[in-house]
From TrEMBL:
Residues 1-29 form the signal peptide. PANTHER family: BTB_POZ DOMAIN-CONTAINING PROTEIN KCTD9. Keywords: Coiled coil, Membrane, Signal, Transmembrane, Transmembrane helix. Residues 484-518 form a coiled coil. It comes from the Bacteria. This is Pentapeptide repeat-containing protein. The lineage of its organism: Bacteria, Bacillati, Actinomycetota, Actinomycetes, Streptosporangiales. SUPFAM superfamilies: Pentapeptide repeat-like.
Length: 565
């Protein structure tokens, strides 16, 4: 169907205008270090144009394409030094594009194809490149600060000396990328595929690399200070120095078998209780003062690691050969079959710990707390238990040949069926020690007091006697207090009754004084005798019965006062 003549004419006019604005001399391809072949925006002026339906000229070097729309367009033009600020290139086909020195600030390149594109020295700040495909692309010296490249395919791309500050590389595929000397501060690369990449002298400060795949990468001189490596995979990386990083990687390169204690990962003072996946090998790591309560470390090698003063209550350990565990809090720890050969557990709290079948040969447990610990079938030849507290420890069937128990407390401990050839117990407290069928046991120099059972019995008996004495004394005191209270109550009642009788006697006297006829038939002798007797009885009264007598005498006087002869 023939096209609209006006539309065709418009397209011809636009194409002619574009062709007339192109410089006559073709621009040379830019290379790193070269100057742009033209002044920025000196090329065709196509700012704000919708170019999705037109054929672009071959050379758009230094063109002004700000805000232009090129969505889905296949671009074969030279765009060296072009200004594409804010342009929309969503889904555009830019494979092998020549865009060195181009300005793409805030441009939308989402889902764009940029494989093998030359973007050296370009300005891609705040650009959107989500789901784009710039694999094998060249970004040497480019500035991508603040850009988003989530899920982008940038594998084997060149980012030498580029700036990627704050770039979002979440879930990006950047394996094999060359990022030497690049600035990746605060980059967001959670779960990104960065394995086999080159990070020589790369700055990764405060970067989020949690869950990222970094294995087999080269990291010589890389700066990881403040970077989050939680759950990252760093197997077989070369020259990694992770000092100052945060988070615990899921995998780490295997330490040198002859590493020095403390030369590995630095987790001093860290709270690691929330970590669910530890590296397989933390040999020679420094975990001084770390918090590991309840953590399962059975699959982690901690050989020659520094675990001094760690809090690992209820934790599970399996491999800590030659580790420094001085002062560690390992109460109720699960150390069954643990390899603790040559480990230093001096002053460690191992009370209630389970150490069944553990290897403690040549281990140091000087001053350790092993009360109620279970050490059945351990091998602790030449181990040093000097001054250890081992009350009620279950040491049944263990091997303690040439072990030292000097000044240890073994009250009610169980050494039945243990092998003790050459073991030393000088100065040890062995009260109640069970030693049935123990081989070659020699308790010379040890001491034993009354057994704890008898001490407990007499203690309970003494407490019972004391309780009885205290009970009797308390009852006596209570009775005395009750008697004093009753006496005080009686005194109050007596005083109230005495005042009442005193008023009664006084009224009798008033009644006598108020009688005017003193010559009648009244027996005045009986009345006055009763009045005087009542006053005398009141003065002598000491209890309620005396007051009753007063009341009786007053009643007799009143009766005599009213009786006629």
């Amino acid at each position: 169907m023939p096209g609209n003549p006006r539309s065709i004419a418009g397209l011809v006019t636009l194409s002619a205008a574009v062709l007339l604005s192109i410089p006559m001399t073709p621009a040379a391809a830019a290379t790193p270090g070269d100057h742009l072949p033209c002044r920025p925006r000196s090329g065709p002026h196509l700012a704000g144009r919708d170019l999705t339906r037109m054929t672009l000229p071959v050379d758009l070097s230094c063109a002004d394409l700000r805000g232009a729309k090129l969505d889905g367009l296949t671009v074969r033009s030279v765009l060296v030094g072009a200004d594409l600020t804010g342009a929309s290139l969503k889904g555009a086909h830019l494979g092998y594009a020549q865009m060195a020195g181009a300005t793409l600030r805030e441009a939308d390149l989402s889902e764009a194809e940029l494989y093998y594109a030359d973007l050296r020295g370009s300005d891609l700040r705040e650009a959107t490149m989500d789901d784009s495909s710039p694999y094998y692309a060249h970004f040497e010296g480019a500035d991508l600060s603040g850009a988003t490249m989530a899920r982008a395919k940038t594998y084997d791309a060149q980012f030498d000396d580029a700036k990627l500050v704050g770039v979002d590389l979440t879930d990006a595929a950047a394996y094999g990328a060359d990022m030497r000397r690049a600035d990746l501060r605060r980059v967001k690369a959670a779960k990104a595929s960065l394995y086999g990449a080159t990070f020589i002298k790369t700055v990764l400060r405060q970067a989020d690399l949690s869950g990222a795949q970094l294995y087999e990468s080269v990291m010589t001189g890389a700066d990881f200070r403040g970077a989050d490596l939680a759950g990252a995979d760093l197997r077989d990386v070369r020259d990694a120095r992770l000092a100052g990083s945060r988070g615990v990687p899921r995998f780490l390169p295997a330490p040198d078998p002859s590493c020095e204690p403390g030369s590995g990962q630095d987790y001093r003072g860290w709270d690691l209780t929330a970590v669910t996946a530890f590296p397989d090998d933390l040999s020679c790591a420094d975990l001084t003062g770390a918090k590991l309560d309840g953590v399962d470390l059975t699959g982690v090698k901690l050989n020659r690691a520094i675990l001094r003063d760690v809090s690992a209550v209820g934790a599970s350990l399996r491999s800590a050969k030659g580790a420094d565990l001085r002062g560690a809090r390992l109460r109720r720890a699960k150390l069954g079959s643990a390899d603790l050969v040559g480990a230093d557990l001096s002053r460690a709290d191992l009370s209630d710990a389970a150490l069944g079948s553990a290897g403690l040969t040549q281990a140091k447990l000087v001053g350790a707390d092993l009360r109620d610990a279970e050490l059945i079938s351990v091998t602790a030849d030449q181990a040093d238990f000097t001054g250890a507290r081992m009350d009620r420890a279950y040491l049944h069937s263990g091997k303690y040949r040439d072990a030292v128990f000097r000044k240890a407390t073994l009250t009610d401990a169980d050494l039945s069926d243990a092998e003790l050839r050459g073991a030393t117990f000088e100065g040890a407290e062995v009260t109640g020690l069970k030693q049935d069928f123990a081989e070659d046991i020699d308790l010379s120099g040890s001491s034993s007091r009354m057994s704890v059972g008898w001490l407990v019995f007499f203690g309970i008996a003494g407490l019972l006697g004391l309780w009885i004495v205290v009970g009797l004394t308390t009852a006596r005191v209570r009775r005395r207090r009750a008697a004093r209270a009753q006496a005080a109550e009686r005194a109050v009642r007596f005083e109230d009754a005495r005042r009442a009788q005193e008023e009664n006697v006084t009224r009798l006297g008033e009644e006598i004084d108020g009688l005017t006829d003193r010559t009648g038939d009244v027996d005045w002798n009986a009345v006055l005798d009763a009045y005087d007797a009542a006053k005398e009885a009141l003065a002598r009264a000491h209890d309620m019965s005396d007051l009753t007598d007063v009341e009786t005498i007053v009643a007799r006087g009143r009766k005599a006062l009213t009786r006629r002869r």
